[in-house]
Amino acid sequence: MNAAIKVTDLSKNFGRKQVLQSLHFSVPPDSIAGFLGPNGAGKTTTLRILLGLIPSYRGNLEMLGCSIPSQRVAALEQIGAVVENPTFIETMTAYENLYWFGSLYKPLTSVRINEVIEMVGLKEAIHQRFGTFSTGMKQRLGVAFGILHKPRLLILDEPTSGMDPAGRVHMREILQLIHSEEKTSIFLSSHLLDEVQRLCNYVVIIDKGVTVSQGFVADLLASHLEKWEIRMADEEIAQARQLIENLGQQIIVASTPRGLLLTMTTGLSAQVNQALVNANIKVSALIPQEASLEETFIKLTSDSGDKGGSS
Amino acid sequence: MKRMLFLVLFELKKILNRKKALLFLVALNVVPLVASLALLIAFVKFKGFGFGEIQFSVLHEVVQGLFTGHVKLFAFIAPFFLALVVGDSFSTEFSRGYMKMLLLTPINRWQVITAKTVAIMIFLLLAVCIGGMFLQADLLIARTLTQNSGLIPESMVQNLPGGLGELGDLVKNRPPTYLVSTASALQLLAMTFFGNLMLIGFFIVFSLFFESAILMSFTSLSVLMGIHTFYLVASGLLNKIDPWYDALAKWCFTRHLDDIFAIKNIQSILDGKASLLSEGIFSSLLAVSIWTAAFYLLATLIFSRRQILH
């Protein structure tokens, strides 16, 4: 089956500044994929290029089996997208905006518009002018616009930007509903790593215009970081801490009520174990913990910063 | 095709939603509206003296003169209106992000230019027709009032016997109810279409470089007026110093608009003495068409390379 999105050797300069450098990644079909990267990593630029808003670049792009830009229109017929904040016409109501913009994909019935409006929880505001909408309502209307024509792929840029926690939870529920009920693959960029970890099963991480890592979330967490809580006698904790910290910067040591919490690059646990045994420190319990996407993200992006970016 | 049609309707709706455009619609038609009302009131007043038929011929002549003036005035004001509407349709849409939303849908950029042009043109032709319709309505109402005055009904005019002398000739040769013949009206509309299509193309090229409609209008109108002023100075004055200026003046595309919308051309078409294929008009229309094609090609090329970053 074709990848939902396939980007190969994508490079882009704005004047003398190189924003993307041979970026490459692919997003598997039927997934909810997160597109992560620090500010200025090139996420929005990549999305704009994919959707044809930036026509000059180097590289090969493919979406749902259609080559971009030659088959851009054919691809966009199967894709719903909102880049940055949705900017509908302020003087028109939510219904009018969805009708006019949405009908550019295919003729729409009022039943479908009402169904989508209800799905994103804007039933009460359907005849309210877009100009009077709050940030959260605007984002939800953007999602509604994206799924009006039942696309195979939905591309969203920071869909929860500017929303309060309750709004974020609601947006997450909406996206999960769209994925399960409409069978739509989703590719979304976000800064909110916790949100991405809860929602996405696949992630692409970029930094300074290069791909840092990509893969299924579970694999990524397991392959880059391991996290252990070790317990020991209280008098040995300080010595153990000193010992582990001396092993290098690859290990983050934090205190817990009965021992230490170690976050380290995969493969370092044997080295830690050896050091503790050599120092005759008796570890009474060894409890595995799940590393968060945030920790993995920070490790990966700081590594790429140290190395000047790698893929 | 359906998508394109829908895009045109969407663009038309956006234009009609703008107060600025509606204000212009009123401004462009304020002369025929006020004049037609004033003439009708005057006609009704004078008809009371029993000279309804004579006054109708006078009214017809005055209304025709007003119509000529309306077409000429329209040609003069239209660039100001077009600059603002094109600025709103492109520059403002870039800055507000509407263009981004539009280009996220499966439409090509050339389709956006085409749809916006068609919508603006429909609005423009509608505006020129409205003025004509006010004046036409004037004549219709005036004729209806004359017929109902009890002097000589229309049915009787057709069967009037000969030998009525001067009065008979006057009644039989009274002017028609229509303001312009269909052929003349269509030809004037075609002239308006071609002339303004070139202007829209010219303004679109400018609008692609700006994100403020006012700034874009100011710049493009300044350039337009600069070119025309140069043409007037170069062809009327500087050519006497050096014939090279005459050759340069020929490249000023604004002169073709001047030629097309010259009062004598409008009058000749109204009188049926000239048509679009007449020598002077046809060559100007041809030149305008070539400039139009050049502006649109340039606009399409620039737009296809433009980055949408807002």
Question: Terminal Cα separation of chain B, in Å?
Answer: 28 Å
What structural class do helix, strand and pairing data of chain B support? mainly alpha
Number of domains of chain B: 1
From the 3D coordinates, which CATH architecture of the largest domain in chain A would you assign?
Answer: 3-Layer(aba) Sandwich
List the secondary-structure elements of chain A in sequence, H or E: EEEHEEHEHHHEHEHEEHEHEEHEH
- Poorly predicted spans of chain B: none
The main pleated sheet of chain A reads as: 6 strands, mixed
CATH class of the largest domain in chain A, named Alpha Beta
Can you describe this structure?
The complex is a heterodimer of chains A (311) and B (310). Chain A is 37% helix and 29% strand. With 311 residues, chain A is an alpha/beta fold. Chain A has 2 domains: 5-207, Rossmann fold, CATH 3.40.50.300; 221-307, YebC, transcriptional regulation domain (Alpha-Beta Plaits, 2-Layer Sandwich), CATH 3.30.70.980. In chain A, a hairpin with a 2-residue loop joins strand 1 and strand 2. In chain A, helix 5 packs parallel to helix 6. Chain A is elongated, with a radius of gyration of 23 Å. The model of chain A is unreliable at 307-311 (pLDDT under 50). With 310 residues, chain B is mainly α. Chain B has one domain. Helix content of chain B is 81%, strand content 0%. Chain B has helices at 2-17, 19-47, 52-96, 98-103, 109-147, 154-158, 165-172, 182-207, 213-241, 244-249, 254-260, 263-271, 279-305. The longest helix of chain B is centred in the N-terminal third of the chain and has 45 residues, at 52-96. At the A-B interface, helix 2 of A face helix 1 and helix 4 of B.
